[in-house]
From TrEMBL:
This is CHRD domain-containing protein. Residues 1-27 form the signal peptide. Keywords: Signal. It comes from the Bacteria. The keyword Signal applies. It comes from Blastococcus aggregatus.
């Protein structure tokens, strides 16, 4: 049975939120920071910034994005092991001419899911469409902060320059909800709007220190408490998988900030 998508229409924010200020004093010895400028895909109008600090296989992830479908959940991932780039904002990569650059059509640029950037619980590719655990774009914006473990494959992709942040979910027809006759290439019970990439950015080594310490120790961060809003349906949760796994989160704080 097709899921319902009764999501409200709310005015979209016009300007990107900057990441929190970073200080070299917060850097851990041996940690490396990566930054991504998120640009629109599928003419979504979504823009933003992502920052990831890797301390061993512990990733601290911060994402600020705006222009998203207000009140709707948006899947977000690290994609890995392809070119480390993104499709254009137009339809040059719409091979089947259905009006969308789908996940499948964009995969040649950014690869398969390496980690699912969920609010809570599993971060492996198995949670690629666990939309009840992804952020909801209140007012059209997302502010995400979580620390969790990545796999060796994901860590290697960062070092090789092939790690990419992708946000999904596009209101292509401007209806204020995920709908339309074109079905998702990942789960035909969902409309394409629910899974099509909305913003994308390749992660490159940052020139500043690491992301600041702060946020919840459990990893829910500033998006805590909204993980159950606007779920697309539990039946879609296992539609995407790839060859990586994520597990337990922890947070390290610098002694020199005490």
């Amino acid at each position: 049975m097709r899921k319902a998508f009764a999501l409200p229409t709310v005015a979209i924010a016009a300007a990107a939120f900057p990441l929190l200020a970073m200080s070299p004093a917060s850097a851990h010895e041996g940690a490396t920071s990566y930054q991504a400028n998120l640009a629109s895909v599928n003419s979504s109008g979504v823009t933003g910034t992502g920052m990831v600090t890797l301390d061993g296989n512990t990733a601290t992830v911060m994402i600020e994005a705006n222009g998203l479908l207000a009140g709707a959940p948006h899947a977000q991932h690290f994609h890995i092991a392809a070119l480390g780039t993104c499709p254009s904002n137009g339809l040059e990569d719409d091979a089947d001419k259905d009006g969308f650059v789908s996940v499948t059509e964009a995969a040649k640029y950014y690869g398969a899911i390496g980690s699912s950037l969920t609010l809570t619980g599993d971060t492996s590719p198995d949670s690629g469409l666990a939309v009840d655990r992804f952020p909801t774009a209140d007012g059209g914006t997302i502010s995400y902060d979580r620390t969790f473990e990545v796999t060796d494959d994901v860590h290697k992709a960062f070092e090789a320059g092939t790690a990419v942040i992708v946000l999904h979910g596009v209101d292509k027809n401007g209806s204020g909800t995920y709908d339309g006759d074109i079905k998702s290439d990942l789960d035909p019970s969902l409309p394409m709007e629910a899974t099509a990439p909305a913003a994308c950015g390749g992660l490159k080594t940052a020139q500043m220190g690491t992301a600041p310490s702060g946020g919840a120790e459990t990893g829910a961060g500033s998006t805590s408490g909204i993980e159950n809003q606007g779920a697309l349906g539990v039946g879609a949760l296992a539609a995407v998988g790839a060859a990586a796994a994520g597990a337990v989160a922890y947070r390290r704080r610098s002694a020199d900030q005490a």
